[in-house]
Amino acid sequence: MSVTPDDPVRLPPHVRPQRLGGIGRLPVFEIETVKLGEKLAYRPDPERPDRHGFVEPRELMPFGEYQAALASTQPDWREMT
């Protein structure tokens, strides 16, 4: 899953919600890296580590298990305002 670290201002304007200075229409959520659990990990994008990253499986797993791991983090999501 593609993510932007630390600050929603780093999101491209077409993705960033209007209330955060963009033109996007969808909400943006945040989660603390420590709340990703044992099955997921954050990896900075080697080409743009300050602007982009990935939430990935810690180890190889079926796609359905990855989806379930992502879904299990939903109680810790906080909408950016």
Order of helices and strands: EEEEHE
Helix amount: 10-25%
Strand order, sheet with most strands = 1-4-3
Q: How many strand segments?
A: 5
Structural class: alpha+beta
Average of per-residue pLDDT values: 94
Tell me the number of structural domains: 1
Largest sheet: 3 strands, antiparallel
Low-confidence stretches are: none
Proportion in β-strands? 15-25%
Q: What is the helix tally?
A: 1
Features:
single chain, 81 residues, two-stranded antiparallel sheet, 5 strands, globular
Structural account:
- By secondary structure, this protein is α+β, with helices and mostly antiparallel strands.
- Helix content is 11%, strand content 20%.
- The chain has one domain (2-79).
- The protein has 1 helix and 5 strands; from the N terminus they run ββββαβ.
- A 3-stranded antiparallel sheet has the order 1-4-3.
List strands and helices in order, with pairings.
Layout (H helix, E strand, L loop, with lengths): L1 E2 L25 E2 L9 E5 L8 E5 L5 H9 L6 E2 L2
Antiparallel strand pairs: 1-4, 2-5, 3-4
